[in-house]
């Protein structure tokens, strides 16, 4: 049974499958790091912490990018009401990106980082060794090539088809993503300038253009699963992404508090980042409103659950936990503490991991030829996966927050001389780190249950 | 939302509003880069500092440590380590001794790898950390423990 509107939408499948494989890797390395937090010398020789962390964070970024690309290949043709310009190009770029990604990760794991820098000729154009941008320069160039081909393919598809609000916002988000990535090639010797422009990639991705991508995917899913009028949903979408950019662009200022920058950033950053929870709050209202006003009972209940879940969790993780430590007098104490880690975990899971699983949940049954939804039994497994992962992430966040509050209390607030040192403080936090690790194991169980749901079939009735 | 507020108006807010704030952001960035030399004392960047920064990057120090609060939170903050570990009088000899003593191999304790840097390289790294500690970053971190 073929339920795809446009056959070329099927190119999304390898992107989704590979994204989920990388997701598993990300979680396994997360568990290794979590254990290293409390058993410091665990695998210290084979997988030093910095390597585990690079793999954990880079896999996260890459699997989300694969997810976004899959989402774009799925929804842009359907919105444009035309086949994808070149399915072949999409598949070629998939393999280029996948091979480059795997080689880079293997490079991290198999040779010391300085050797990797040497053999990839980092000295010719040093861009490596900065948080999240650790990829060898040649990998970064590969990412640019893949992005250009990807944008060309989508752009041509949109040009020959209908230009809906969802497509336009998806496209501006993806172009923004590519343009901002170019700042990863700028690495001045002056550390202050380096960090200033590093944020153009990091912040303007996750608190800027990625929100456009997320909003577009969410709106697409809500149109499909609720049957609510497109005009209504697109109006909401414009308002939400406008709020996201209006708050997020100057919200970059909250990273310029402690960076050899003028003091006005304390005000600009605090005020605009205080507004950053608003688009996420609007997204919660939007998602629940649309689902309550639905005109059809879509058989894919799991996809609806993911859509509502991502709105709520993004609001909590990005909105509430972000706001907790975003005002400059608070951030003075919390900057670079476990509070940041708590916020990062829930924000990435809620906003981006969950939106990718939302589109996968909706699109995969159609791509696999199963129909509008998986069978009930498979959906029950999928929803168990949803709840296990989501509740585990709530607890990971709470434990890291506990660790962070105690860390600030012991290490940051007392005067010099009375404050505990970093390492002594870390030992005092170990109970929280152990609990976080337990929650991490439950997260992995949830992920296994989620993946298992892809293989569940209804028993043939006798 | 009321019927008076149309999709077209929402679209104009999206394109117009974001363009407006992008321009403000670019303006502030231009002003900030003009002001930064007063605070980042870039005139003190020597070749040794430059080599030190590259060593910092090529060994992925940020994968465990944080620097001015960014990076990993697994190992201590290093933007003020120069002041914490001896300053002008003792930092260089401290760093040399520390780097060469790695890994400490204390069971259960977090391990720092040995990066096999030469004395000259450790000196460059120390110069980079010293330079970093002397930037005016609005008084962060709150105390010497970072």
UniProtKB/TrEMBL annotation, chain A:
<feature type="transmembrane region" description="Helical">
    <location>
        <begin position="344"/>
        <end position="363"/>
    </location>
</feature>
<feature type="transmembrane region" description="Helical">
    <location>
        <begin position="384"/>
        <end position="410"/>
    </location>
</feature>
<comment type="pathway">
    <text>Nitrogen metabolism; nitrate reduction (denitrification); dinitrogen from nitrate: step 3/4.</text>
</comment>
<keyword id="KW-0349">Heme</keyword>
<keyword id="KW-0249">Electron transport</keyword>
<dbReference type="GO" id="GO:0005886">
    <property type="term" value="C:plasma membrane"/>
</dbReference>
<keyword id="KW-1003">Cell membrane</keyword>
<feature type="transmembrane region" description="Helical">
    <location>
        <begin position="303"/>
        <end position="324"/>
    </location>
</feature>
<feature type="transmembrane region" description="Helical">
    <location>
        <begin position="430"/>
        <end position="452"/>
    </location>
</feature>
<feature type="domain" description="Cytochrome oxidase subunit I profile">
    <location>
        <begin position="1"/>
        <end position="462"/>
    </location>
</feature>
<keyword id="KW-0812">Transmembrane</keyword>
<feature type="transmembrane region" description="Helical">
    <location>
        <begin position="59"/>
        <end position="77"/>
    </location>
</feature>
<dbReference type="InterPro" id="IPR023615">
    <property type="entry name" value="Cyt_c_Oxase_su1_BS"/>
</dbReference>
<dbReference type="GO" id="GO:0004129">
    <property type="term" value="F:cytochrome-c oxidase activity"/>
</dbReference>
<keyword id="KW-0560">Oxidoreductase</keyword>
<keyword id="KW-0472">Membrane</keyword>
<dbReference type="InterPro" id="IPR000883">
    <property type="entry name" value="Cyt_C_Oxase_1"/>
</dbReference>
<feature type="transmembrane region" description="Helical">
    <location>
        <begin position="198"/>
        <end position="223"/>
    </location>
</feature>
<dbReference type="GO" id="GO:0020037">
    <property type="term" value="F:heme binding"/>
</dbReference>
<keyword id="KW-0408">Iron</keyword>
<dbReference type="InterPro" id="IPR036927">
    <property type="entry name" value="Cyt_c_oxase-like_su1_sf"/>
</dbReference>
<feature type="transmembrane region" description="Helical">
    <location>
        <begin position="138"/>
        <end position="156"/>
    </location>
</feature>
TrEMBL record, chain B:
<keyword id="KW-0472">Membrane</keyword>
<feature type="transmembrane region" description="Helical">
    <location>
        <begin position="12"/>
        <end position="32"/>
    </location>
</feature>
<protein>
    <submittedName>
        <fullName>Nitric oxide reductase subunit C</fullName>
    </submittedName>
</protein>
<dbReference type="InterPro" id="IPR036909">
    <property type="entry name" value="Cyt_c-like_dom_sf"/>
</dbReference>
<keyword id="KW-0479">Metal-binding</keyword>
<feature type="domain" description="Cytochrome c">
    <location>
        <begin position="47"/>
        <end position="133"/>
    </location>
</feature>
<keyword id="KW-0408">Iron</keyword>
<dbReference type="GO" id="GO:0009055">
    <property type="term" value="F:electron transfer activity"/>
</dbReference>
<dbReference type="GO" id="GO:0020037">
    <property type="term" value="F:heme binding"/>
</dbReference>
<dbReference type="GO" id="GO:0046872">
    <property type="term" value="F:metal ion binding"/>
</dbReference>
<dbReference type="Pfam" id="PF00034">
    <property type="entry name" value="Cytochrom_C"/>
</dbReference>
<keyword id="KW-0812">Transmembrane</keyword>
<keyword id="KW-1133">Transmembrane helix</keyword>
<keyword id="KW-0349">Heme</keyword>
<dbReference type="InterPro" id="IPR009056">
    <property type="entry name" value="Cyt_c-like_dom"/>
</dbReference>
């Amino acid at each position: 049974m073929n339920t795809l509107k446009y056959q070329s939408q099927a190119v999304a499948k390898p992107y989704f499958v590979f994204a989920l494989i990388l997701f598993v890797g990300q979680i396994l390395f997360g568990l290794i790091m979590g254990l290293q937090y409390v058993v410091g010398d665990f695998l210290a020789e084979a997988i030093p912490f910095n390597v585990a962390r690079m793999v954990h964070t880079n896999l996260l970024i890459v699997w989300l990018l694969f997810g976004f690309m899959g989402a774009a290949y799925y929804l842009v043709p359907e919105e444009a009401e035309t086949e994808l310009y070149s399915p072949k190009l999409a598949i070629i770029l998939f393999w280029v990106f996948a091979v480059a990604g795997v080689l880079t990760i293997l490079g991290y794991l198999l040779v010391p980082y300085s050797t990797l820098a040497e053999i990839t000729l980092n000295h010719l154009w040093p861009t490596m060794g900065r948080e999240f941008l650790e990829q060898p320069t040649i990998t970064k160039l590969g990412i640019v090539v893949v992005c250009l081909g990807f944008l060309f393919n989508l752009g041509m598809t949109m040009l020959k088809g209908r230009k809906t609000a969802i497509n336009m916002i998806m496209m501006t988000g993806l172009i923004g993503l590519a343009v901002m990535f170019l700042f990863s090639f700028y690495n001045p010797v002056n550390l202050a300038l380096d960090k200033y422009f590093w944020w153009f990639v990091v912040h303007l991705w996750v608190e800027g253009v990625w929100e456009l991508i997320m909003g577009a995917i969410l709106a697409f899913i809500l149109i499909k699963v609720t049957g609510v009028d497109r005009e209504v949903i697109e109006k909401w979408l414009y308002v939400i992404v406008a709020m996201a950019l209006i708050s997020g662009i100057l919200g970059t200022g909250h990273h310029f508090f402690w960076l050899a920058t003028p003091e006005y950033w304390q005000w600009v950053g605090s005020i605009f980042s205080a507004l950053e929870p608003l688009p996420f709050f609007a997204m919660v209202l939007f998602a629940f409103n649309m689902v309550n006003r639905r005109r059809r009972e879509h058989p894919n209940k799991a996809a609806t659950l993911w859509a509502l879940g991502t709105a709520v969790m993004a609001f909590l993780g990005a909105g509430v936990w972000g706001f907790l430590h975003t005002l400059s007098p608070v951030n003075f104490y919390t900057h670079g503490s476990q509070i940041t880690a708590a916020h990062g975990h829930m924000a990435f899971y809620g906003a981006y991991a969950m939106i990718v699983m939302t589109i996968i949940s909706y699109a995969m049954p159609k791509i696999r030829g199963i129909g509008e939804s998986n069978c009930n039994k498979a959906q029950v497994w999928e929803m168990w996966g949803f709840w296990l992962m989501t509740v585990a992430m709530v607890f990971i966040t709470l434990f890291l927050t506990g660790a962070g509050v105690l860390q600030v209390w012991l290490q940051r607030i007392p005067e010099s001389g009375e404050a505990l040192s970093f390492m002594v403080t870390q030992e005092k936090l170990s109970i929280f780190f152990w609990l976080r690790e337990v929650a991490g194991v439950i997260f992995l169980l949830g992920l296994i249950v989620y993946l298992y749901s892809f293989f569940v079939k209804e028993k043939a009735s006798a | 939302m009321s019927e008076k507020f149309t999709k077209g108006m929402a679209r104009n807010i999206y394109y117009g509003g974001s363009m407006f704030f992008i321009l403000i952001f670019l303006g502030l960035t231009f002003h900030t880069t003009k002001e930064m030399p007063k605070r980042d004392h870039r005139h003190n960047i020597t070749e040794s500092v430059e080599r030190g920064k590259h060593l910092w990057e090529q060994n992925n120090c940020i994968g465990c440590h944080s620097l001015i609060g960014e990076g990993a939170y697994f190992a201590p903050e290093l933007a003020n380590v120069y002041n914490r570990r001896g300053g002008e009088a003792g930092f260089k000899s401290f760093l040399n001794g520390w780097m060469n003593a790695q890994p400490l191999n204390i069971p259960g304790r977090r391990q720092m790898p040995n990066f096999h840097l030469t004395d000259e390289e450790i000196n460059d790294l120390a110069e980079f950390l010293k330079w970093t500690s002397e930037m005016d970053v609005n008084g962060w971190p709150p105390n010497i423990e970072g």
